[in-house]
């Protein structure tokens, strides 16, 4: 990972950039870190200054040195034109989507998308007269058949939250661009260290910064990065909607980013080790992790990604709810809860059959999503081994 990312014009390796980004000690009395800037009002000295709007910062809602520091580093990581820091991952998703669509337009969304992304389309876009249809995440170039004159955006999440289908982004981007539609990618799983959607044809990339960027389950943030042609509409959408991210949250993102490379490497190693081990357990039907050779999209993952994340799912053999409860209720190290990306391991049951509309989820069994944290691998395996025993006993 010490190499520069493919297609990047970074002067240094990613680790060096993460360690040094945004540090301007000369402007901070020599302090090594950019401090938390809080503030709404930013002062102008003269009427000329106020009217020319040439100052770097004009009003706190549009950013401050702490938020700008994060935006700069994510821009570099994604080889983007610009980035904005949003107050949550979901707000990053909604800003990106709204920047592409007007009343009468339509968006195509992967059937595997994070559920709140889908809820936004159903509960908000449709009310605004914007259509949303869902497509098979494995559709690839055939997405061309779904694109109409009204399709202005295609939303990709690769791999999908919960079910981990890997999408053929270059093929989707080619089909979308042939009809003038923009491609938005939710890149939260891989982080820009392991997947660089703008280099594969996407126009906009969003992150739930809450997850891997923050890395400690203690702050909310999102980012929207784009190529130049998509940027003006994104910036305008954020300004009109009035989204604001505080310097306090930005500071925690900047701090998390310092260790992103080393954490991603460790999460990757641990998650893959545990995924392989789970494949050999008798209660396990399938492990849904794109870096496993058994995964149906392994070849696409291998072609387009340079690593894998902390998150994957395991499909347990069919068993009643009591077995699932027996598995989940008495874990010692894995905790049950939403979100992921922190130092601590998490698990949550997933029910794709409740939301899917493009392709029915036909897999029998209990699906559990795991986030592998930074605990000792053998401790985590022992916790899961006990859970699998309880699952089998209640089956
Ligand atoms: C968590 C998540 C989001 C939303 O992020 P929040 O910060 O919780 O709003 C978006 N996409 C994916 C893939 C996520 O896992």
Please provide a written account of the structure.
This protein has 395 residues and is α/β, with parallel strands linked by helices. It has two domains: 2-258, 3-Layer(aba) Sandwich (Aspartate Aminotransferase, domain 2), CATH 3.40.640; 261-393, Aspartate Aminotransferase, domain 1 (Alpha-Beta Complex). The chain is built from 13 helices and twelve strands. It has helices spanning 14-20, 47-52, 65-78, 89-98, 115-125, 169-178, 191-194, 228-241, 247-258, 260-279, 298-304, 321-329, 377-393, and strands at 82-86, 106-110, 131-135, 151-157, 182-186, 204-208, 222-226, 284-288, 311-316, 335-336, 346-350, 366-371. The chain has a seven-stranded mixed β-sheet, sandwiched between helices. A five-stranded mixed β-sheet has the order 8-9-12-11-10, covered by helices on one side. Strand 2, helix 5 (115-125) and strand 3 (131-135) form a beta-alpha-beta unit. Helix 3 packs across helix 9 (247-258), helix 4 crosses helix 5 (115-125) and helix 12 runs antiparallel to helix 13 (377-393). The longest helix is centred in the C-terminal third of the chain and has 20 residues, at 260-279. The radius of gyration is 22 Å and the shape is globular. The structure holds pyridoxal-5'-phosphate (PLP). InterPro entries: Cys/Met-Metab_PyrdxlP-dep_enz (IPR000277), Cys_b_lyase_bac (IPR006233), PyrdxlP-dep_Trfase (IPR015424), PyrdxlP-dep_Trfase_major (IPR015421), PyrdxlP-dep_Trfase_small (IPR015422). It comes from Devosia nitrariae. It catalyses: L,L-cystathionine + H2O = L-homocysteine + pyruvate + NH4(+). Belongs to the trans-sulfuration enzymes family. Keywords: Lyase, Pyridoxal phosphate.
């Amino acid at each position: 990972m010490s190499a520069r990312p493919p297609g990047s014009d970074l002067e240094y390796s990613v680790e060096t950039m993460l360690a040094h980004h945004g540090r301007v000690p000369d402007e901070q009395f020599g302090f090594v870190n950019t401090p938390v800037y809080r503030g709404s009002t930013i002062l102008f000295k003269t009427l000329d200054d106020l009217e020319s709007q040439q100052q770097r910062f004009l009003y706190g809602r549009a950013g401050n040195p702490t938020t700008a520091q994060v935006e700069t580093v994510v821009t570099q990581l994604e080889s983007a034109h610009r980035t904005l820091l949003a107050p949550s991952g979901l707000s990053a998703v909604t800003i990106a989507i709204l920047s592409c669509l007007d009343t009468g337009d339509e968006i195509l969304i992967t059937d595997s998308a994070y559920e709140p992304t889908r809820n936004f389309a159903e509960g908000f876009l449709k009310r605004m007269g914007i259509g949303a249809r869902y497509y098979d995440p494995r559709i690839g170039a055939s997405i061309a058949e779904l694109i109409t004159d009204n399709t202005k955006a295609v939303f990709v999440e690769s791999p999908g939250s919960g079910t981990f289908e890997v999408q053929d982004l270059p093929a989707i981007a080619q089909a979308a661009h042939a009809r003038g539609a923009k491609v938005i990618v939710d890149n939260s799983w891989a982080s820009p260290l392991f997947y660089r959607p703008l280099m594969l044809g996407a126009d906009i990339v969003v992150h739930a910064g809450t997850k891997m960027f923050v890395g400690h389950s203690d702050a909310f943030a999102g980012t929207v990065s784009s190529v130049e042609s998509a940027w003006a509409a994104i910036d305008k959408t954020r300004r009109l909607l009035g989204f604001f991210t505080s310097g306090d949250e930005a500071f925690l993102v900047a701090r998390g980013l310092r260790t992103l490379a080393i954490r991603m490497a460790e999460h990757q190693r641990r998650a893959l080790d545990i995924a392989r081990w789970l494949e050999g357990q008798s209660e396990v039907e399938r492990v849904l992790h794109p870096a496993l050779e058994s995964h149906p999209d392994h070849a696409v993952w291998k072609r387009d990604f340079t690593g894998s994340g902390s998150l994957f799912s395991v499909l347990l053999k069919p068993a009643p709810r009591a077995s699932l409860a027996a598995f989940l209720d008495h874990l010692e190290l894995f905790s049950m809860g939403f979100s992921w990306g922190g130092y601590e391991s998490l698990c949550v049951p997933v029910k794709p059959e409740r939301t899917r509309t493009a392709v029915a989820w036909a897999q029998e069994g209990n699906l559990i999503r795991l986030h592998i944290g930074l605990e000792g691998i053998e401790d985590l395996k022992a916790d899961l081994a006990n859970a699998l025993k309880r699952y089998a006993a209640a089956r």
